[in-house]
Structure formats: structure tokens, C-alpha cells
TrEMBL record:
Coiled coil region boundaries: none
GO MF assignments: mRNA binding; structural constituent of ribosome
UniProt-recorded name of the protein: RNA-binding protein S1
Top-rank taxon, per record: Bacteria
Annotated GO biological process: translation
Organism of this sequence: Ruminiclostridium herbifermentans
NCBIfam families: PRK05807.1
Function statement: Binds mRNA; thus facilitating recognition of the initiation point. It is needed to translate mRNA with a short Shine-Dalgarno (SD) purine-rich sequence.
Amino acid sequence: MPLEVGTIVEGKVSGITAFGAFVQLPEGRTGLVHISEVAQEYVKDINAHLKENQIVKVKIVSIDSNGKVSLSIKKACEPKQAAMSVKPPMEIEWNSNKNAASNTSFEDRLAKFLKDSDERLHDLKKNVDSKRGGGGYRKSAQY
């Protein structure tokens, strides 16, 4: 079977260099896996990922006019898009809150807003006073 771009084949690591690994392919041809194509993560030391005579699956990335074969282990191991789980979009009833809010009158909503606002303002003042030392300023101001 002739080598074709895009196919995944098994090969044997025949040599390791600082910039990549040479892989012996079927039919006696040799290809290069660049260090950037060895794994999904950053590879600082290729010896941590590959050993000589190791059997690896590689994807043929390109074959140039001189017959040089570029390979990728990273692309051979990519998960298939169809196999990935896809969550369906969440359904939201946009009108449910609007209907609940529209049942109350404007005055009721305004009263609720003012009440919530007063409570938040009271809590904020309480927090600020406690950070100042529990009202020490007021005691000194009474002299």
C-alpha cells in the first residue's frame, strides 16, 4: 500500500534527535516526526516521550517532491469530532420571569425595590462602621 497524506500507519522509532524522531514506515520508508508533533503538550525533552524501537501510530502529514515524509503522532491521536460529547443547548423560558413580574403592579415592584435598597444600604453602613472600630468616632465627637 503506497503512503498517502492523511493516513494513519504504525511505525517503529529508528532514531531520536533534538528536533524530532525518525520513524521507519511500512515499505521501508522513513519519516520524521518533528518535536512539536510528538505530543499535545509542550515537549522539552523528546526522550521523555519516545524511545528507540518503540512502535507508534503516526499520521502522514505531507510528502514533498523529494520524497521526504513528515509525520505527526499528535494528529494520529486526536479524538474524533463525532466521538466528543456535545451538550444540547439549554432551553430557557424567557417569558416565565416576565409574566411573574408583570402580575405585580408598578407600585408593588417599587416598594420591593426600595425595601431591598434600604436593607443593602443599612448592611453597607454596618460594615463600614465595624471596619472603623465600632463607632469610636462618635464617642469622641460627643465631648
